Amino acid sequence: MSAVMITRKVRKWEKLPGKNTFCCDGRVMMARQKGVFYLTLFLIVGTCSLFFAFECPYLAVHLSPAIPVFAAVLFLFVMAMLLRTSFSDPGVLPRALPEEATFIEMEIEAANGNVPAGQRPPPRIRNVQINNQIVKLKYCYTCKIFRPPRASHCSICDNCVDRFDHHCPWVGNCVGKRNYRYFYLFTLSLSLLTIYIFTFDIVHVVMRSVDNGFLNTLKETPGTVLEVLVCFFTLWSVVGLTGFHTYLISLNQTTNEDIKGSWSGKNRIQNPYSHKNIIKNCCEVLCGPTYPSVLDRRGLMQEDSPVSTTCTAPPSSSSIAAPQTTHAVLCLQKTTAPLIPNEHTPDDAKPSIAASAEKSPSPKEELPPTPKLPPLASPETDAETSIAKDKTH
């Protein structure tokens, strides 16, 4: 048995570390925990479907046909922002290669020196200056890198994310540098859609109650009652989340920085990323350039996989010896064959192959001759044979 290394090309997303899932040949990147994301899709699609089925036909006739049209446009925009946030790379930073990690470890050991036994080693940090403010870069023991400013390690996805805001289970992905604007537009448009549906649900109930009465209207439109309940409980959380992120954008601050109190703690360090202007901060976050992904998910890489090969002899038999001899000669020829295609076999190697072939017994020599037995004859036949012999003599 021998092993042969076969090299095949695979996509880099198949070998990326972390706890992400990829679809569509690496184009779609999400977290593994996607149950809440499916719940978000169900609530949005279900509520809008009920609105288009029950309220829109009545409102388009009695008020304006523009009501369902605007609701459809708003619904499509919400779904586009949701899928754009959920399926994109939030800004995951690649981990250090083994050589890079070894070099960084050597630099840290050289800078810290020998730590006496029983003492805790100093924290692995680096200081950089941004807008006349000292910002500390922390070392990630998982990714083996010094994280860039505003980056943090997500424990759910097990990756460092640039300008990490938070991990949102409702969208099934982290929110970071590359998809934060789409997340904000999703929450903003979802707030408008929720207010829009909730308002026209109330208008629909009031208009039908004038003719049929309030209780009869509720009995005739059970879908409207369900929509009002869903929108009422969703409205406060979605509108509150949108207002909170509007406040963070005006200060050019992330949720992670706000929770940790990075710029409002005891040290009274000012935010080095703020322009001290609400409009400039909003323009930078919402209208800034789109940063490319640094993962190269769909790039190609070579992978060596061992494949075991076996050389088995055919089954032996006492009456058939020729296949064994032929198999032995073939195996000997394979072992003495040149490794280079254009290389000739040396002359001194050829007689050994022939000699080995001559020494091996042939099928005729190995099988002893089978004695021929005389045919069995009757007594009458033997008597006739003996009379014939006497006549000839």
TrEMBL record:
The chain crosses the membrane at residues 36-54, 66-83, 182-206, 226-250. Pfam families: DHHC. Its main location: endoplasmic reticulum. Residues 368-377 have a biased composition (Pro residues). Coiled coil: none annotated. One of its GO terms (biological process) is protein targeting to membrane. It is found in: Endoplasmic reticulum membrane; Golgi apparatus membrane. It is an enzyme of class 2 (transferase). One of its GO terms (cellular component) is Golgi membrane. GO terms for molecular function: protein-cysteine S-palmitoyltransferase activity. Residues 136-260 form the Palmitoyltransferase DHHC domain. It is a multi-pass membrane protein. Keywords: Acyltransferase, Endoplasmic reticulum, Golgi apparatus, Lipoprotein, Membrane, Palmitate, Transferase, Transmembrane, Transmembrane helix. It catalyses: L-cysteinyl-[protein] + hexadecanoyl-CoA = S-hexadecanoyl-L-cysteinyl-[protein] + CoA. It comes from the Eukaryota. The keyword Nucleotide-binding does not apply. Its EC number is 2.3.1.225. PANTHER family: PALMITOYLTRANSFERASE ZDHHC9 (PTHR22883:SF71), ZINC FINGER DHHC DOMAIN CONTAINING PROTEIN (PTHR22883). Belongs to the DHHC palmitoyltransferase family. ERF2/ZDHHC9 subfamily. The DHHC domain is required for palmitoyltransferase activity. This is Palmitoyltransferase. It comes from Stegastes partitus (bicolor damselfish).
